[in-house]
Amino acid sequence: MLRHMRTTLDLPDPLFRQAKKLARARKIPFRALVAEALRRVIKEEAPRRGFKLAERSRGSGGLVNGLSWTDWDRIRDLVYEGHGG
Q1: pTM across the whole model
Q2: pLDDT per position in the chain (85 positions), as tens?
Q3: In whole angstroms, what separates CA 61 from the centre of its chain?
Q4: Is residue 68 domain-resident?
Q5: 67 near 60, Cβ under 8 Å?
Q6: CA–CA separation, 85 and 83 (whole Å)
Q7: 3-class SS at 3?
Q8: Domains in the chain: how many in total?
């Protein structure tokens, strides 16, 4: 069962006139236009799932023997080796 909440909106006159005109052009009630607009904004603002990189490490963890975590130039060279980087 759908429930509806009555509310009052204070809109700038020009915005109200534009919205009423658009509702008439679409042949829908003003309240339907407002509800549609709110749904769109809420959908756009919905938290997006964060990207999670799949675990692809090999071995027992850590770096290849002979590398240190601060050896960035060498690590970069190894990453791009054979890829024109």
Answers
A1: 0.52
A2: 668 888 899 999 999 999 999 999 999 999 999 999 999 999 888 777 777 877 776 666 666 777 777 788 888 888 888 776 5
A3: 33
A4: no
A5: no
A6: 5
A7: coil
A8: 1
| Spatial CA neighbour of 33 closest among 23, 41, 46, 25 | 23
Cα 35 to Cα 19: distance, rounded to the nearest angstrom = 12
Structural domain contains residue 76: no
Beta strands in the chain (DSSP E): none
Cβ-proximal residues to 29 (8 Å cutoff; 6+ apart), any chain: 23
Determine, yes or no, domain membership for 27: yes
Specify if 65 maps to a domain.
no
- Asked if 9 contacts 24 with a C-beta cutoff of 8 angstroms, the reply is no
Separation CA 35–CA 13 (nearest Å): 19
Half-sphere exposure of residue 14: CA atoms within 13 angstroms, side-chain side: 0
Give the torsion sign (CA, 75, 80, 84, 85). negative
Query: What is the domain extent for residue 23?
Result: 13-45
